[in-house]
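> forwarded from #structure-qc
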C-alpha cells in the first residue's frame, strides 16, 4: 500500500504522512520547519487573536448598552444624515448660508417639534432640517421663522400634519438599532 504524502507548510517539500509532524491541519517535515513557520506567522496569529478579542468585546458592550445609549446613537446617525441631506441649503429658520455663519461653523439638525415635546417625531424627516447653531441653540429653535421656512419647503398641509401629530410612539431597542443602521447606510450611499 502506498503511503499518503503531504506538503510541508513551511518549505513545501513532500513528506510521508507517517513521518510528518501534524499541527492543526498543517504538516511539517521537521521540528525546525515547524519553529520557523511559527516564528514567521507569530505576528499574524497575534493580530488575529487581538481582532477576535475586539470583536467579542464589541458584542459584549452592545449587549450591555441601555435604551438611552441606543437612542443617542440612533439620533446621532439621523442628525448626520439630515445635515448631509440639507448641506446645500441655508438655515431653515434664518436662511443663513455657510459663508455667513459666524457662530461656530458647524450646523445642527434642528427639530421643528422638539424631541422632548414630540418624541414620536424624533426620527421623522419632515420634522428635522439643517439649522444654524444660533437659531437652534441660542434662539430655542427660532420656531416662528422655522415654521415659515418649513411651509416654503414642505407646504402648508404637511406642516399642519406635523403640528397635529400627537400619537405616542415607544421605540424599542431593536427599533433604535434599525434606525441607526438605516440612516448610517443612507448617509454612506449619499456620500458616494
Amino acid at each position: 500500500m502506498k503511503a499518503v504524502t503531504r506538503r510541508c507548510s513551511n518549505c513545501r517539500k513532500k513528506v510521508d504522512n507517517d513521518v510528518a509532524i501534524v499541527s492543526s491541519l498543517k504538516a511539517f517535515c521537521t521540528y525546525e520547519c515547524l519553529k520557523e513557520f511559527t516564528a514567521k506567522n507569530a505576528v499574524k496569529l497575534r493580530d488575529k487573536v487581538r481582532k477576535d478579542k475586539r470583536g467579542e468585546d464589541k458584542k459584549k458592550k452592545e449587549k450591555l448598552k441601555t435604551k438611552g445609549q441606543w437612542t443617542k446613537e440612533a439620533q446621532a446617525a439621523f442628525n448626520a444624515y439630515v445635515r448631509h441631506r440639507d448641506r446645500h441649503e441655508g438655515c431653515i429658520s434664518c436662511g443663513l448660508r455657510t459663508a455667513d455663519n459666524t457662530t461656530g461653523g458647524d450646523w445642527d439638525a434642528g427639530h421643528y417639534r422638539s424631541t422632548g415635546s414630540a418624541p414620536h417625531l424624533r426620527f421623522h424627516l419632515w420634522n428635522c432640517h439643517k439649522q444654524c447653531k444660533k437659531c437652534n441653540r441660542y434662539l430655542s429653535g427660532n420656531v416662528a421663522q422655522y415654521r415659515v421656512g418649513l411651509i416654503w419647503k414642505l407646504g402648508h398641509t404637511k406642516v399642519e400634519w406635523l403640528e397635529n401629530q400627537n400619537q405616542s410612539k415607544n421605540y424599542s431597542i431593536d427599533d433604535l438599532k434599525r434606525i441607526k443602521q438605516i440612516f448610517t447606510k443612507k448617509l454612506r450611499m449619499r456620500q458616494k
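QC bot note: The longest strand covers residues 107-111. The radius of gyration is 29 Å.
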